[in-house]
Amino acid sequence: QVQLVESGGGLVQAGGSLRLSCAASRRTARSYYMGWFRQAPGKEREFVAAIHWSGGRIYYGESVKGRFTISRGNAQNTVYLQMNSLKPEDTAVYYCAAAYDATITPGGYQYWGQGTQVTVSS
Length: 122
Known about the structure:
Elements: E1 4-7, E2 10-13, E3 18-24, E4 33-39, E5 46-52, E6 58-60, E7 68-73, E8 78-83, E9 92-99, E10 111-112, E11 116-121
Parallel strand pairs: 2-11
Antiparallel strand pairs: 1-3, 3-8, 4-5, 4-9, 5-6, 7-8, 9-10, 9-11
């Protein structure tokens, strides 16, 4: 069982930045891919970014390429999502997730955090 806890969401003006954190439980987490998804009201859950704990494989969704950066801190079992140049359309609940294999589909992730709200004002 992998437990995930997100933090770092909040309200920010367009053009601003936020950094989300996802703390993973120590057991088995290091063999997983860690991903970030987001879901806005009335929309499907959207892939944002994913990284393997080794750091060697990183993936981004098209809508965030060049603006968001995913990274991990080995000692703390934490994955980060640095979000720059935020836009109002980035407003959503952001979820951290863990998967056995590299995938961009929500159904491929076995474990999920509770989500953190990000609101970008225009």
